[in-house]
Amino acid sequence: MVIDYFLSPEQKLILEVTERIGKEYIAPYALKWDEEETCDPRPLKALALADLFGLFIPKEYGGLGFGTFENCLVIETLSKYCAGVATTFAASGLGAYPILIAGHKGQKEKYLPQIAVGKKLCAFALTEPQAGSDAAAIKTTARKEGDYYVLNGIKQWITNGGVADLYTVIALTDPKKGARGASAFIVEKGDPGFVIGKKEKKMGLRASTTTELFFSNCRIPKERLLGREGMGFIIAMKTLDLSRPGVGAQAVGLAQGALEVALNHARQRVQFGQPVYNFQAVSHTFAEMAMRIEAARALVYSAARFIDSGAKNISAASAMAKAFASDVAMWVTERAVQMMGGFGYMRDFPVEKMMRDAKCLQIYEGTNEIQRNVIARELPKFLKPLEIG
Question: Do 219 and 191 touch, CB atoms closer than 8 A?
Answer without folding.
Answer: yes
